[in-house]
Design brief:
alpha+beta; 4-stranded antiparallel β-sheet; 3-stranded antiparallel β-sheet; 11 strands; elongated
Amino acid sequence: MATFGPVHTSVYRIFIGNIKSKGETCMNYTKNYHLPQWDETDRIMRTDFNQMCAGLEDGLTTAQAAANAAQQTADAAAVLPYVIGTYTGTGADLSIDVGFRPRFLIISGIKDGASALDIGEFGRHCVITAGNSVSRRVQFTKKGFTVKAQEYWEYPDLAVSERVYDYIAFK
C-alpha cells in the first residue's frame, strides 16, 4: 500500500474524491446557481466554500440593485405626473410599460449630428400624440404604449432596429 507525505488539501481531495478522469474530481453542483453539493464522503474545501459564498454575495447584490431601481421607478411614477425613458427599436412592434395609460406622449428618435437639424428626420422618427392621431404608428395601452413596426413606408417609424428613442409619457 502506498503512503503519501504531507500534501496540499486540493491534491488530497483528488485522491479521495470521485475521479472523472485523471486529475479531475467530480463535484456535484446545483442546476440553476452552480452551488456545490457535497456528498457525505467529500472533503469540504475552503476554496469551494468561499467561491460559493462570493457567488451568492454577487447574485444577491445584483438582485437587490435591480429591486431598488424598480422601486425608484415605481416611486417616481407615483409622485411625478410623467415618466421619462428610452427604448431601442427592434424592427418589430414593441410594447413599453410606464405603469399607467398615458394621456399624452412625445417620442423622439432623432440622432445627434447634422440630421438633427433636418425637418424630414423629425417627421420620420418623432411623434407627439394624445392617442387619437397616428394610432397606426403608436397605440396607448393600460400600462403604457406600443410602437408599431413600419409597414409600407408609413411614418413616423418608431421601431427602427438599433435606433434609440427617448420618450416622455404624461399621466
